[in-house]
């Protein structure tokens, strides 16, 4: 079997390189409907000049090794369309996309979405395709590249076909290892069908259904409602049998033992045939049935003891009849299935191995859980059963002889199931539901041996042999005979009865500037209305105003931290460009999506080269607004205003100018807007005005002088209003939100230091510096000293423009070292900023001081009484700490 590691090495040593593989989850900027995508950034090397029509024999070899690809329609939208593209000549990335889709289909995972796009760099492509399981998707990406190269380079066909078969099987193995089991998957699918979101909490079956305070959890088929004491009872077979027996439930005679010396006397007391199983086992592990001799009993005892944590073993009388499983959920019987162990029936002609192979040809059987039934494999249990009958795999069974190949009737080991739900006698229904109450489990599997379940167990000699916490659902969901039962429906009904909420309101905020302040302001208003708010920002994640993690927390991981917190009633999530591109947004949809603006920032990174590219990424947030939600858009930014066409829900607008054409058009249509008019923050409801508050009474606006802060206030006010927050709560929130290092770190923070003033702000792009410049021009300070970081994570023209704007704003400029040089030297960044300074008509003095502390302290040393020192804080918390440190030093002096 080919492993992932050698495959990766093979790809990277040939004339094509995988530069990056990343995954997107949730709404994304590639596809409106596929929520799980692989993005492979691929350097196709020499194949940039070599499309498929120029690779000799490629078309024929491709169809020989993968004939099913002939069904792909591609841009022709009909079977054979992709083949035509290959014959006409198409690029390697496009072929690899289709290979990735078909490989997954051949492995039993049919996905249909794929795109290949050329980037701005010659020979570099983004190959995008859907996946069901992330680990399989990543493996598929490498396998698709390998297949293309081997076909193009002329590797022997026999080797290609063998490698392809091995890799498809490996994909199945990976899928079975990482996917949900049938029971977990059925509950998740039922929840999704009702719009209930889920989050996988580990790599097993621990799942959160719903968000925040309204969440419920499951682990396979146990829930957060499952009683721990009841689980302990169910896993102790002796305790279970004793309790049920004392309550009048028919159970087989039996005893628990721990020593080999007790086997003989116990089986004599019980009487053959007997069943021997671990006291605390599950899923049939260590159980042996139909024991007729002491020798077999001793062997079975050791097998059972090896599977028992406590080393206790149950020996009980074997009842006659079929093996039935009754499933009770929330004290209601929902399904009954009769189970039969994997077996073959002799025909007097074929060997046992041939009979097994014939059974496995049934199209309903597949690898692992991919089909209704599982293929039968020969394992240690099978070999022991054959040995007991003195058979081998080459033995020819007599006609009609039934040979059981497993000791248990589990579907996962090749067993079969027949649905008998509708046949249960009312007395048995009552009995099974009563057992669930006696044991106390919310979801319980009751194992019964009886001739049938149409007659009462007390009459037909049947009995309950054990009960199971976390029972498997597969036999009920897809029995080999009879009606499949949607048993997961009853589990979700129990967890979320009609009327019980499963979501929490989600506010998502994006844009180039103002995201963090708007996020914090919305959180402040909502918290004042009595809600427990979880919010994420560029400086950390907060639950009820307590910082949980520090750092840039604007991606999907931080969003899910908030959504997983069981105390959170409302989530307010700053959603930045980087996280959207890297991994998606971390939730399925939001209730309110805010876009503040789109301006030049981080262009030239991750194939986002223009403002239009950036707007396409930011548009993920309004696209994720639910059909009942609201998109809050900046009406004065045309790139943002255009996003209205992508919104499924309602659209509302904010603007500084109430007479802006987009606002006036919305007013005529009776829409809702929020504008700045006559010094007021005002809501427009059609033609009617509702004045919320004077800007001069809102600390964040600095008496109405900070226009960009007024924009943030408009966005936050409108977002809260359409969500249903009262005007009074909005007013209180606006009045109590101050631009301090505590509430808005690095966002217009004024600090008095000695006899001069320090202003710290996160203006880190031309638009941000321009807004700050307009504000500072209204202030009456003697001299303005600016401290600017030489951040290289910008285009050359952006750095020059920041230098020019800094020259227009300050009288003296100190440039310090920054991070994210984008391949430049720090000196090159300094030169670009200085070039921008020279472009200004204003003549100022400039210093280069690389170390941050030295640069900040130099600015303070130059400041005289009545001066203003402005720190453009690229690393906000560090700069706040430097300012506080300097103030302490002054106090000590």
Spatial extent as radius of gyration: 34 Å
Give the fraction of residues assigned to helices.
25-40%
Strand line-up across the major sheet: 25-24-23-26-22-27-28-29-30-31-32
Number of DSSP E strands: 38
Can you tell me the overall shape? elongated
Q: Segments where pLDDT lies below 50 for 5+ residues?
A: 1-14
Span between N and C termini?
Answer: 73 Å
Entry summary:
The protein is an alpha/beta fold. It contains 31 helices and 38 strands.
How does this structure look, described?
By secondary structure, the protein is of the alpha/beta class. Helices cover 37% and strands 23% of the residues. The chain has 31 helices and 38 strands. Strands 25-24-23-26-22-27-28-29-30-31-32 form an 11-stranded mixed beta sheet, with helices on both faces. Strands 33-34-38-35-36-37 form a 6-stranded mixed beta sheet, sandwiched between helices. Helix 5 packs antiparallel against helix 6 and helix 18 crosses helix 26 (727-736). 48% of the residues are buried.
Notable characteristics:
893 residues, alpha/beta, eleven-stranded mixed β-sheet, six-stranded mixed β-sheet, 31 helices, 23% strand, elongated
Which helices and strands occur, and which strands form pairs?
Layout: H1 4-13, E1 17-25, E2 36-43, H2 58-65, H3 81-88, H4 92-106, E3 114-118, E4 124-130, H5 134-153, H6 157-178, H7 182-193, E5 198-200, E6 206-209, E7 216-219, E8 222-223, H8 228-235, H9 237-246, E9 254-257, H10 263-270, E10 274-278, E11 288-291, H11 294-306, E12 313-317, E13 322-329, E14 332-340, E15 343-345, H12 352-360, E16 365-366, E17 373-374, H13 380-388, E18 402-404, E19 416-419, H14 426-439, E20 443-450, H15 457-460, E21 463-469, H16 474-477, H17 488-495, E22 506-510, H18 515-528, E23 533-537, E24 540-543, E25 546-550, H19 556-564, E26 570-574, H20 577-583, E27 590-595, H21 611-618, H22 620-623, E28 625-634, H23 638-641, E29 650-655, H24 661-668, E30 672-677, E31 680-685, E32 688-694, H25 707-723, H26 727-736, E33 749-753, E34 756-761, H27 766-776, E35 784-790, H28 796-809, E36 812-817, H29 826-839, E37 845-848, H30 852-862, E38 868-872, H31 876-892
Parallel strand pairs: 16-17, 22-26, 22-27, 23-26, 27-28, 28-29, 29-30, 34-38, 35-36, 35-38, 36-37
Antiparallel strand pairs: 1-2, 2-4, 3-4, 5-6, 6-7, 7-8, 9-12, 10-11, 10-12, 13-14, 13-20, 14-19, 15-18, 20-21, 23-24, 24-25, 30-31, 31-32, 33-34
């Amino acid at each position: 079997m080919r492993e992932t590691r050698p495959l990766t090495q093979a790809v990277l040593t040939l004339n094509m390189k995988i530069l990056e593989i990343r995954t997107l989850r949730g709404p994304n900027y590639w596809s409106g409907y596929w929520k799980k995508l692989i993005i492979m950034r691929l350097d196709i090397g020499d194949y940039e000049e070599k499309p498929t029509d120029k690779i000799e024999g490629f078309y024929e070899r491709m169809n020989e090794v993968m004939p099913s690809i002939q069904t792909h329609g591609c841009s022709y939208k009909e079977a054979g369309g992709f083949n035509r593209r290959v014959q006409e000549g198409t690029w390697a990335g496009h072929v690899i996309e289709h290979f990735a889709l078909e490989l997954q289909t051949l492995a039993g995972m049919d996905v249909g979405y794929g795109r290949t796009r050329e980037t701005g760099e010659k020979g570099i492509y983004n190959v995008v395709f859907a996946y069901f399981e992330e680990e399989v998707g990543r493996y598929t990406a490498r396998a698709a590249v390998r297949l293309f190269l081997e076909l193009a380079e002329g590797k022997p066909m026999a080797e290609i076909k063998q490698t392809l078969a091995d890799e498809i099987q490996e994909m199945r193995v990976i899928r079975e290892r990482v996917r949900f089991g049938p029971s977990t998957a059925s509950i998740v699918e039922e929840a999704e069908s009702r719009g209930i979101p889920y989050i996988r909490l580990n790599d097993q079956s621990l799942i959160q259904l719903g968000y925040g305070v309204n969440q419920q959890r499951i682990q396979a088929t146990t829930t957060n409602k499952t009683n721990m004491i009841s689980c302990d009872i169910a896993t102790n077979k002796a305790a279970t049998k004793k309790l049920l027996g004392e309550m009048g439930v028919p159970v087989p005679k039996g005893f628990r033992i721990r020593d080999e010396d007790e086997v003989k006397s116990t089986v004599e007391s019980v009487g053959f045939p007997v069943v021997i199983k671990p006291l605390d086992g599950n899923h049939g592990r260590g159980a042996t049935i139909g024991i007729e001799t002491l020798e077999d009993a001793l062997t079975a005892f050791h097998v059972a003891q090896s599977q028992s944590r406590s080393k206790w073993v149950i020996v009980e009388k074997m009842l006659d009849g079929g093996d039935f499983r009754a499933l009770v959920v929330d004290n209601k019987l929902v399904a009954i299935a009769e189970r039969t162990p994997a077996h073959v029936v002799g025909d007097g002609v074929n060997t046992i191995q041939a009979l097994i192979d014939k059974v496995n040809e049934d199209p309903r059987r597949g690898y692992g859980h991919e089909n209704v039934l599982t293929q039968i494999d020969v394992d240690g249990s099978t070999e022991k059963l054959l040995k007991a009958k003195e058979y081998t795999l080459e033995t020819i069974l007599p006609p009609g002889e039934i040979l059981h190949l497993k000791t248990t009737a589990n579907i996962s080991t090749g067993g079969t199931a027949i649905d008998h739900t509708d046949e249960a006698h009312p007395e048995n229904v009552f009995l099974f539901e009563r057992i669930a109450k006696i044991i106390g489990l919310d979801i319980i599997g009751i194992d019964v041996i009886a001739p049938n379940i149409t007659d009462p167990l007390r009459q037909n000699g049947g009995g309950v042999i054990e009960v199971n916490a976390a029972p498997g659902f597969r036999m009920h969901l897809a029995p080999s005979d009879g009606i499949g039962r949607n048993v997961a429906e009853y589990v979700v009904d129990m967890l979320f009865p009609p009327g019980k909420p499963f979501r929490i309101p989600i506010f998502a905020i994006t844009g180039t500037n103002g995201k963090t302040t708007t996020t914090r302001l919305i959180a402040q208003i909502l918290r004042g209305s009595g809600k427990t708010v979880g919010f994420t920002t560029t400086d950390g994640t907060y639950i009820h105003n307590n910082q949980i993690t520090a750092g840039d927390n604007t991606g999907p991981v931080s969003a899910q931290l908030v959504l997983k917190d069981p105390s959170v009633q409302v989530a307010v999530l700053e959603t930045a460009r980087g996280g959207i591109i890297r991994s998606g947004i971390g939730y399925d949809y939001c209730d309110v999506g805010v876009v503040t603006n789109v301006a030049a920032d981080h262009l030239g990174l991750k194939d986002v080269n223009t403002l239009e590219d950036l707007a396409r990424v930011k548009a993920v947030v309004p696209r994720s607004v639910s059909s009942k939600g609201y998109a809050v858009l900046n009406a004065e930014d045309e790139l943002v205003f255009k996003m209205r066409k992508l919104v499924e829900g309602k659209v509302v607008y904010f603007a500084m100018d109430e007479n802006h054409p987009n606002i006036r058009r919305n007013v005529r249509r009776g829409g809702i807007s929020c504008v700045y008019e006559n010094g007021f923050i005002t809501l427009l409801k059609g033609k009617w005005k509702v004045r919320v508050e004077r800007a001069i009474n809102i600390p964040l606006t600095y008496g109405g002088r900070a226009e960009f802060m007024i924009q943030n206030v408009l966005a936050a006010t409108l977002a809260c209003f359409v969500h249903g927050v009262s005007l009074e709560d909005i007013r209180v929130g606006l009045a109590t939100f101050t631009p301090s290092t505590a509430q808005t770190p690095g966002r217009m923070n004024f600090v008095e230091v000695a006899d001069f003033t320090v202003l710290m702000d996160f203006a880190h792009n031309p638009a941000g510096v321009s807004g700050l410049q307009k504000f500072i021009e209204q202030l009456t300070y003697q001299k303005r000293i600016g401290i600017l970081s030489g951040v290289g994570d910008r285009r050359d023209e952006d750095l020059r423009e920041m230098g020019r704007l800094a020259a227009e704003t300050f009288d003296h400029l100190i440039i310090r070292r920054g991070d994210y040089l984008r391949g430049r030297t720090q000196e090159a960044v300094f030169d670009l900023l200085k070039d921008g300074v020279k472009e200004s008509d204003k003549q100022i003095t400039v210093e280069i001081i690389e170390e941050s502390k030295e640069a900040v302290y130099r600015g303070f040393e130059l400041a005289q009484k009545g001066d203003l020192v402005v720190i453009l804080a690229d690393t906000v918390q560090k700069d706040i700490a430097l300012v506080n440190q300097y103030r302490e030093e002054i106090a000590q002096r």
